Amino acid sequence: MKATRKIGYPKNFFTTIRLSFLELNKYIISEKILPLFFKWMLLSFYILIMSSCEANEEDTHPEDISNFMLIENPEKVIKVNLFYVESETSIHQSDYHLDEAEFFEYLNGYYFHKYGIGLELAQSQSLVNDELYDLRDNRGGEPSTFFMQCADSYEKDKLNIYIIKRSNIIGIAGMGRSQRVLLTYENLFTSTSPHEIGHALGLFHDDETVNIMSTTLDKQSRKHFNHVQEEKMKKRIDMINTNNAL
User: Fold this and answer.
1) Domain Peptidase M10 metallopeptidase spans what residues (predicted)?
2) Is it the case that residue 2 has pLDDT exceeding 70?
């Protein structure tokens, strides 16, 4: 049996109520009490860290239904291609189970229709590309790998969204530029999706926490585009629809 070292507390330590502050302080910093004090501090720190992790997971929870709005005829509409990225081995046993109608309702209802912008599915298809499927093997070069590997598959008169199953890409939930968006499957129903779509439609990062283009770690707080961003996206959509995007 593992031996347990007993800490020698002073007699009546827990029952004496008249110990002065200086005396109590002496016990805490003494070599007898110090190990127990450090254990308590370590346990408190561990609990704090675990709480923070659980709070971060709430970023994936559904948005406030009061922010949901769908309209019949958005002012600007852009067609969207969805690509489910597969490998040579996974194509025969794909485990993508995305409800595409629900996904577009989510994007439009929470983020785009209120600005007169509508995203409509053009087509969805599987794309066999081992480089994109194993993007985690290109640490540090993910953006260049993504844009190079999708150069032949994306259509210039549409928004092109590429979905990958890999969820362990270091520091990346998605990326977007020049009508192309890469999203990890687990981040589809978070503010990461409109954020990266914003990049693909020409937007840059914004310092305002509630702005969808914010880089805040609190993804649930990203809810709005500003007027300048709205107009920029609409102009970009016009260019894409006329196939004049750069």
Assistant:
1) 92-226
2) no
